[in-house]
Amino acid sequence: MQTQIAIPEEFQITEQIHQKTYLVNGELKAWNGKNSEVISTIASTKEYAHTVLGSIPDMGETEAMEALDAATNAYHRGQGVWPTMKVKDRIECMESFVKKMEEKREEVVKLLMWEIGKSLPDSRKEFDRTVEYIYDTIEDYKQLDRNSAKFQKHDGVYAHIRRGPLGVVLCLGPYNYPLNETFALLIPALIMGNTAIFKPAKHGVLLITPLLEAFQSSFPKGVVNILFGRGRAVAAPIMKTGKVDVLALIGNSKSANALQDQHPKSNRLRLVLGLEAKNPAIILPDADLDLTIKECISGTLSFNGQRCTALKVIYVHEDIKDEFLKRFSSAVDALKFGNPWDEGAQLTPLPEPGKPSYIQELLDDAKGKGAKVHNKKGGKTSENYIWPAVLYPVSKEMRVYEEEQFGPIIPVVSFTDIEEPLDDMAASNYGQQVSLFGKDVYTLSPLIDTLANLVCRVNLNSSCQRGPDVYPFTGRKDSAQSTLSVHDALRSFSIRTFVAFKDNDLNNETIEQLLEAKVSNFLSTDYIL
Ligand code: G3H
Predict the structure, then answer these.
(1) Is the shortest distance between the CB of 306 and ligand 1 below 6 Å?
(2) CB 392 within 8 Å of CB 369
(3) How far apart are CA 82 and CA 191, in angstroms?
(4) Which of 56, 159, 223, 432 could staple 219 via S-S, CB 3.0–4.6 A?
(5) Ligand 1 site, residue 181, Cβ cutoff 6 A
(6) Angle 64-197-75 (CA atoms, 0-180°, nearest 5)?
(7) Ligand 1, atom 6, residue with closest C-alpha
(8) Which residues lie closer than 8 Å to 295 by C-beta, 6 or more apart?
C-alpha cells in the first residue's frame, strides 16, 4: 500500500489536465491527435513514483502551417487590423488580457510548482513579476507613443517618426521561467503590432493552458497562435517557409542556430535571443565573506542553479580560498530541501528526470581529474535530486568548467593573479554577467572597466540576476542577441519607420487636413493619457 505525502489541500493534484484544444486564428480548436503525458518528478506518495499531471497535444507540421497562416493573414502584409490599429486600442486589448490573466494566478502558480519544481514564493514571484512586466510595458509604450506624436524638420524636410511592427514573430521560451521569460518576449512583440506563434517550452506547458481563453478573447483573430509539441516538429517547418520575420527565443544557442539555419533568407530574420551563460563570481582577498557567501549561495543555487543568470563558476583568491570553501560548503549543506510548497524549501526537485544523472557525470568527470567534493552532502542522490557539490580544485580539462551545468553543482577555481579569471572570461564563449566581490576602490575600478567590456552587467558584491526587468538584459558572444528590458524589448520588436514631406504649401495643407480628419492611425499627434 502506498502512503500519501502531506500536501496542502490547495496544491493537491485532484484532477489531471488533458489539453485538447489549441489556439489558432482566434479559435480554440479541438485537437484529436496524439497527446504526450506531462509528468512531474515530484512524488505524491512516500514510495517514490512520479506524478502524472495530464497531457498535451503532440502537434506536427499541419498545425504549425495552420498557425503560421493565421499569423501571416492577421499581419496581412502590414495591412491587418492589428498592425494598423491605433496604439490606444492595442493597449486596451493588452489591458483586457492582463486583467483576465490575473484571475488565473492560483492555477498557474500551482502548475509552476508541479511542472518545474519552483518553490511557492518563487512561483508567486514569477507570476506577479510577469503581470507587473505587462503593466510596465503598457506604460512604457504610452511614453514611446507620446514621444512620437510630433513632427520634426531638418533641411526643409518634415518627418513624423514612429516605431512600427516587423511582421510575424515565432516565440519560444525556456522551461526555467516558462511564464516570465516567454511573456517577456511575447508581450512586447504583440503590443508593437506584430503577430505571433508561440510554443511553450519542454516543461511548464500545462501552466499556459489556463491562459488560452484570455488570449483568445483579448486579441483579434490570428494575432496570437499557440501550439504544443516538440520544437523540431513545429518550429522547424515554420522557419523553413521563410515567413518568420523575428525569431524570439530564450534557450540555447544550438537550437537558435538550428532554427536560424532553416530560414531560407536569414538576412530578413531579426533575432531576439537570450542564450546560455557561465557567469563567474570573482572573489578578491578583501571581500566581505559573510556577504559574499550569502550572495554566492543565492547566485549559484536559487532554483537549483537552473537560471541562465546563475553563478556557474566561482573564482576565489588563493589567500581566502580555504576560509571561503569551509564556510561556503557548510552554508550549502545547511540549505533546506523540500517540495515547492514546503515552508522554507530552498532546494527543490529537479524537473528534468535525467538531470541528477547528468550532474553525477559532471561530478565523476571532475573527481577523476583531481577535484574534491568539499561539502559533506555533496552528490547525495535521491530519485529527483542530487545535492549540490562544492568542487575544488576545478581545472579547464573538466567538463564542469566548460559546460553550462544548469543545475546544482558548484565549480570553484582559485587564483593568485587577477589576470587568470580575466583571461578565462575573455576566452569563454559566453559574456552575460559577472559578480565581483571586494572593497578596495583602486583594485575594483580598473577591474570594473575591463569587465564591463567582457560582459553586459557587472554586479558589485551582488549575485547575478536579470531583474529588475526595467534594466537591460543582454549578453555578448554566445549569450544573447538584442536587448530585453521593459524599455528595450519594445525597440527589439519594432523598427523605425516614418512619413516625410518637403515643406511646401501643398504638403503642409494636406498634412493639416489629414491630422484634422483623424483618419490615419500612424500619422497622428494624439497624446495618449
Ligand atoms: O534564466 C535566466 C533568467 O533570465 C534569469 O532571471 O536572474 O531573474 O532569475 P533571474
Answers:
(1) no
(2) no
(3) 9
(4) 223
(5) yes
(6) 105
(7) 466
(8) 281, 435, 437, 461, 462, 463
